[in-house]
TrEMBL record:
GO molecular function terms noted in the UniProt entry: oxidoreductase activity, acting on paired donors, with incorporation or reduction of molecular oxygen
Name recorded for this polypeptide: LLM class flavin-dependent oxidoreductase
Keyword Nuclease: no
Gene3D superfamilies cross-referenced by the UniProt entry: Luciferase-like domain (3.20.20.30)
Matching PANTHER family: 5,10-METHYLENETETRAHYDROMETHANOPTERIN REDUCTASE (PTHR43244:SF1), PTHR43244
Organism lineage string: Archaea, Methanobacteriati, Methanobacteriota, Stenosarchaea group, Halobacteria
Alphabetized SUPFAM superfamilies for the sequence: Bacterial luciferase-like
Organism this protein belongs to: Salinadaptatus halalkaliphilus
Amino acid sequence: MLASGVTLGSSERAELFEYATLAEEQGLESVYAGESWGAAAVPVLTQLLERTESIDVCSGIFNIYTRTPGTVAMTANTLADIGDGRFRVGLGTSGPAVIENFHGVEFDQPLRRTREYVEIIRAFLAGERVDYDGDLFELSGFALDMDEYYECPIYLAAMGETNRQLTGEFADGWMPLLVPNTGIDDALEAVERGTERGNRSIDDVDVAPWVPTCISEDDPDSAREHVRSLIGFYVGAMGEYYANAASSFGFGDEADAIQAGWQEDRQAGAEAAVTDEMVSAFGAAGTPAEAAESFDRFGEAGANSPVAYIPSRWADDDLIRETITHL
């Protein structure tokens, strides 16, 4: 197994468009563009759709706190129209650090909000006039005023067990970040319980974990170090969210050491605490053969469509292009 999609984090827009075109030329199925506290996602997603012809474009992610479900539905349908149906809706909670400290919005009821968000967006994208009486949203009398409706696949970046159950119950795809190949099968148990509650099959859910990925034939050590950097940044710098996730998959001591390293020496300290075992379990790094073996392990554990998360914050242009070409 190799990756089916790619995401590049914090690339400059011009470079991102070039990388997306290269990914399309290499036959990859999807490219994901996210949003944190830098470039807004919608203009980037629009330009990606306009500059590509066959690759699916996905929001990776729209958080569920700073746009209404109606806004996301309008946006998704418009983007799908621009791309002749090539848009996927990626949703997630993000984390308290971003939602509260950057957006100034209370990080409340993430599970309930996720359920209502997906139900409302799916109804709008089906062309329905939506009357909805939820705990958080009450809607009445409106349908999307569009000439054509696109029932875009909805992917959830669900990490916690209950949120994974919700994913299985009503989402089209699951795209977690920092789930190790040693933990995918256990994490999927919650997704499968959700599919049973929703009278669905696990085959109805596209399992698309984001895998930190960097590949080099000539300098595999550098490739591994860039993956180490990405893991260190998420576990060390992003509050408790990803540290707790790593702990839940058996890397508690390592997560504590990474967070302590971040507090002591920021990025360098966090990287130094990321073990080789973590690089192997969470990522696909090194030579093309080593990366392929890593993706195989994700596939054997239950992943259908792993997404290569290339650490563009650290890797240079040549290494990013080499990684995409090997994918």
